[in-house]
Amino acid sequence: MNMAQNWEAPFTGMSMGSVAGAFSGFAQVGTETTSVARWNSLMVWEGGTPPTFTLPVTFIALFDPFTEVSGAIAALSAMISPELKDASIGGRIPERVTLNIGRRINIIDVAIQDISFDLDAPRDSNGHFLKNTVNLQLTRSSIYNSSDIVRAFQ
């Protein structure tokens, strides 16, 4: 899981010297002091991005290649795809999913952003995959609060 927060330094480049312009530059050269203070480097939180997940899933056929591998890939591919009308509004957006990690942590309202799998993976005589690894890129629809994180790991 990848969680990122956006921190910016909005005061970089702002100082008393920047107000005085070229004169402060001359003063700095002559005195070897600066008008920049530590507050110029203060970071301000600008929000965060929802957590993202990279999830590789390997499917192996034990009895039925269509159901166990090809059908599973088809189901995931259907989940990432919308169902749009030909010429009118009212189509269906791609489905959201819930990740159940170890039957202990449930991450709800997750969008599948990207799916990839090997088209050259081994196949049976009917053309169904015998084994294939699907790589999923997933993103939660909103950011977590710190209290959400603590509850998820209890």
Instruction: Give the helix level as a range of percent.
Output: 10-25%
- What is the distance, rounded to the nearest whole angstrom, between the alpha carbons of the first and last residues? 17 Å
Spell the H/E element sequence: EHHEHEEEH
Low-pLDDT sequence parts:
none
Choose one word for the global shape.
elongated
Counted up, domains total 2
Strand content: 25-35%
Could you give the count of β-strands?
A: 5
Mean pLDDT: 86
Explain the overall architecture.
The structure is a single chain. The chain is of the alpha+beta class. It folds into two domains: 2-42, no CATH class; 50-152, no CATH class. Helix content is 25%, strand content 34%. It contains four helices and five strands, in the order βααβαβββα. The protein has a five-stranded antiparallel sheet. The longest helix is centred in the middle third of the chain and has 16 residues, at 65-80. It is elongated, with a radius of gyration of 26 Å. The two termini are 17 Å apart. The mean pLDDT is 86. This is Morphogenetic protein. It comes from Escherichia coli.
Key terms for this structure?
154 residues; Morphogenetic protein; alpha+beta; 25% helix
State the gist of this model.
The protein has helices spanning 16-20, 22-31, 65-80, 146-152, and strands spanning 2-8, 44-60, 96-101, 105-117, 131-140. The chain is α+β, with helices and mostly antiparallel strands and 154 residues long.
